[in-house]
Amino acid sequence: MSGHHDHAHSLADDLKVIETMMARRRALKWFAGAGTAAFVAGCGGSDGSSSSVSVVSSGTAAATPTPTATATATPTPTATATSSSTACIADPTETAGPYPGDGTNSASGSTSNVLTVNGIVRSDIRSSFISTSTVATGTLLTLTLTLVNVNATCAPLAGYAVYLWHCDRQGNYSLYTAAAESYLRGVQVTDANGQVTFTTIFPGCYDGRWPHMHFEVFSSQSNALSGRYAILTSQLAMPAAVASTVYADTTTYPSSTANLARVSLTNDNVFADNTTAQIAQQTPSFSGSVAAGYTATALIGIAR
């Protein structure tokens, strides 16, 4: 990405690490073993050893790795979802990357944990809430996620917490490559329908990765705010057609069109080994326009 040459260098490092991992279990093993500065060498953003980090110190979460769910990454077909005509499957575990800000990684000897900061529980995640009030600009997106139990005929999971984070329109992550900011991160708790809704922007596409969003699921808000005990860490893939339409605005998304042209779902280092069914569930359904903003929905399958 223009102006972020450490993107490419760090991506090369990522690929070397990721290519050694075994199919679906690669991210789980890597995530579970990363609790120090070495974790910053993961995937996402301008993920490099020279990244600048705005640190939120937390003595309660320390650098404790976040245990992930015992659910297998292999799709688990179940009965038809109660609110949908399609069957749900368990979402695969994916890497959190080096920029989760959830207490599982560190830089310069300090732990970055935005989950323990007042204000992280919010629906509109476009503004920073720690040291500045900067609002992230870009194409408006209202995203609704529905959590379901794949072992109980896709029944909705109420009272679960979802932590969502993603890069800004230029491919930078708050707290890290946008070090002064804390935007595009937030936690919501699922309602009786198993749903959470976030108001955000469409993420940019940075060099080497398909446009995406990160999320972690916790069994309760208290677990989420302790910055540990995630039962699922995964990612959402943005639809190709919508991405191309959004990125046509090169003033708002200056590098995304060129970066998107160099990557595909089949060679992306996170999504490439997923099944067709997994990719379909990980890709939100969109409606709307650049001018009016988009609404999107996605099903998140959890094996409980």
Automatic annotation (TrEMBL):
It holds the Pfam family Dioxygenase_C. Residues 60-87 have a biased composition (Low complexity). Keywords: Dioxygenase, Oxidoreductase. Residues 139-209 form the Intradiol ring-cleavage dioxygenases domain. Coiled coil: none annotated. The keyword Oxidoreductase applies. GO terms for molecular function: ferric iron binding; oxidoreductase activity, acting on single donors with incorporation of molecular oxygen, incorporation of two atoms of oxygen. Residues 60-110 are annotated as: Disordered. PANTHER family: INTRADIOL RING-CLEAVAGE DIOXYGENASES DOMAIN-CONTAINING PROTEIN-RELATED, PTHR34315. This is Protocatechuate 3,4-dioxygenase beta subunit. It comes from Sphingomonas jinjuensis.
